[in-house]
Amino acid sequence: MKKIIIVLSFIFLIFTSNLLAEMKEIEDNVLEGVTGQAGFSSITRDGNLLRILLNAKIKTYGEVGAVKAGYYERNNLGDLYQLAPKIAGKVVVLRGPQDDTFWAWEKKANPNRLDWDQDWRDLKLGTGVDNPVTMNGLLIKAEWDDINSPNRKLNKLLIGTPEMRGEMEANMVRLTGVLNPDLMAGLMGYIVHNTGEWISEKPMKVIRDSIITKGNLRLALWPLDMYPVELGKYEFKYPGQGFFLELAREGIPNLLGRTDGGITALMGTNEYGQMP
Question: What are the distances in angstroms from CA 225 to CA 53, 218, 219, 268?
Answer without folding.
Answer: 49, 10, 8, 31
